[in-house]
Design a protein that fits this description.
EC 2.7.13.3, 558 residues, alpha+beta, cell membrane, Heat Shock Protein 90
């Protein structure tokens, strides 16, 4: 339970780290990019609407200037004989036709403020303008562009008037600008779907209509900021909608042109960028989470596997330590057993002398012969036990390697004899074949014996796993190879080793045996010993067929 909790904690930590660490730079980069783009887009939107206001202001100013110039040109061409009567009427009508759709009507005002001639759809020929503000302003200034007013016709309109002295008296030519033509010019398309332009006078009255609501001479209730500069821009809310505004002076400051556009359209690029950022964050976040889940799970599994491997290695180390202690104990047991064996051997020698002395006097020859044979068997078995204890003591000694000349033709059969009985008990036939020309090698007998016994014991285990107690075969073959090396092969017809395990067979603590039956150190130690002798230890195996270990040791003459 503790291991599972620890594994879950590691997985959770890896998952959080893999999500948070990439998410921070992603969020920072997206946020910086978005705010940079948003700021630039807003500046561009403001710049665009300001430019639209500038362009329309120039267009309207030019229009008004041209209308003034037209009237001044007409009035300048007027001769003294055309100041009244039919000729004056004809001239004014011709000028109105020349203006096309721009002018709605036109009238020539005499020095007394009455129409000397009038052309247009309204009945204004007999009207007296001497007391009107626009008439007085025109006489004083020489020209005048009025605000929109009702006048005698009771229809919202504005006029352009110019004055000229003829024979010392002031004559005025007045024309009404077509409000439809002027309004269409002011509010011409080109500011998106929600953009609109309109003109207000100083009192906040509409001088042109507004598409979103606002007729001529209606008051605009929106609180516009003061027009301290020729061009200002600002944002505000009107009728529940947020707008981006630009305001410019017109008509010598008497009017102000307002250009406005809904923010949702003006800042459409920013809104779309915001949606794009959200989409990128969602997609990027999803990718990060999926990858984090996958990678963290794999890493967690890997770490968990490594932790289990370390735990297994710790167990194998403990088992190896116990086996080492057992080896030391076995060497001590062998030493202790060897002492009574020597006493038994001495007593047996005394017994044989006694038997020899009494043989001549023994009346039962057969019994004496049997006793003698028993004594000989005791002698053989005691010798055998002594040999075994000597080999155990020799194998268990931890002395420094004693490299010496070794005759493999004599050495290998003895090693085979040490495991032959164990093999025969398991129904395994062990053969040892040594070529007569095999070279002498320089090696430590104890170490080489350790290598060979380990290889033979492994072969016995593999054969028993496959065949049980019948049909096993182990062959030890020693010969000289083409490089003057001693080549020793140990071949069995056991269970074999799979290809995956072959690549790790010489790694410390790796074993193919069942838990508790091996430490995984034997082949690793054997490999190290052969390497120290300047040789090599290799393996070839087929699963289900058998295994061959090959030991190559340089010959003495090499």
């Amino acid at each position: 339970m503790a291991k599972q909790s620890s594994s879950c904690g590691i997985h959770r930590l890896l998952l959080i780290s893999m999500i948070v660490i990439p998410a921070i730079p992603l969020l920072l980069s997206v946020a910086i990019g978005f705010y940079s783009f948003a700021g630039e887009s807003k500046r561009f939107a403001v710049s665009s609407i300001r430019q639209a206001a500038v362009d329309r202001t120039q267009l309207i100013d030019e229009f008004l200037h041209e209308r003034r110039s037209d009237l001044e040109s007409y009035l300048a061409l007027l001769t003294e004989d055309a100041l009244s009567g039919p000729k004056a009427q004809a001239e004014v009508a011709a000028w109105l036709r020349t203006g096309g759709q721009v002018f709605q009507d036109m009238g020539l005002i005499d020095p007394q403020g009455r129409h000397a001639a009038y052309a247009g759809p309204f009945g204004l020929a007999d009207k007296d303008y001497s007391d009107t503000d626009w008439y007085k302003e025109t006489r004083e200034s020489g020209y005048f562009i009025s605000d929109v007013f009702l006048g005698y016709r009771k229809v919202p309109h504005f006029i352009v008037a110019v004055a000229r002295r003829i024979n010392g008296q002031v004559w005025i030519l007045r024309a009404t600008v077509n409000p439809t033509v002027f309004g269409n010019m002011v509010n011409a398309p080109g500011i998106g779907d929600t953009g609109e332009a309109y003109i207000l006078n100083r009192e906040g009255l509409f001088q042109t209509g507004r598409r979103s609501g606002g007729d001529l001479l209606e008051h605009d209730d929106y609180a516009y900021p003061a027009q301290d500069e020729n061009l200002v821009s600002f944002t505000g809310s009107d009728g529940g909608e947020d707008y981006l505004f630009a305001s410019a002076r017109l008509n010598d400051g008497n009017w102000r042109l307002i250009v406005r556009q809904k923010e949702e359209e003006a800042f459409h690029a920013v809104v779309m960028a915001g949606y794009t950022v959200i989409f990128v964050l969602l997609c990027g976040g999803a990718v990060i989470v999926v990858l984090a889940l996958f990678v963290s799970r794999r890493l967690s599994e890997t770490l968990h596997g490594q932790a289990e491997a370390v735990s297994k290695l710790e167990g194998q180390l403990l088992q190896a330590a116990r086996l080492a202690e057992l080896g030391e104990m076995a060497a001590g047991f062998a030493h202790e057993i060897n002492n009574p064996l020597q006493i038994m051997k001495t007593d047996l020698a005394l017994l044989e002398l006694t038997l020899k002395d009494v043989t001549d006097e023994c009346s039962n020859r057969e019994a004496c012969a049997e006793l003698k044979e028993i004594a000989e068997q005791f002698q053989i078995q005691i010798g055998r036990c002594a040999a075994i204890t000597r080999e155990i003591l020799r194998f268990g000694r931890q002395d420094a390697p004693q490299v010496q000349d070794m005759d493999l033709a004599e050495f290998l059969p003895k090693v085979g004899d040490m495991v032959r009985n164990k093999a025969q008990v398991n129904g395994i036939n062990v053969t040892c074949e040594v070529a007569p020309d095999i070279p002498t090698v320089l090696a430590d007998p104890g170490q080489l014996q350790q290598v060979m016994i380990n290889l033979l014991n492994n072969a016995i285990h593999a054969v028993v796993d496959r065949h049980g107690a019948k049909g096993g075969r182990i062959e030890v073959v020693a010969r000289r190879d083409d490089r003057n090396q001693a080549e020793i092969t140990v071949t069995d017809n056991g269970s074999g080793i799979n290809q995956e395990s072959l690549s790790k067979i010489f790694m410390p603590f790796f074993t193919t045996k069942a838990p508790g039956q091996g430490t995984g150190l034997g082949l690793s130690v054997c490999h190290s010993i052969i390497d120290s002798l300047g040789g090599e230890l290799t393996v070839a195996s087929t699963k289900g067929e058998g295994t061959t270990f090959t030991v190559r040791i340089p010959g003495k003459s090499a």
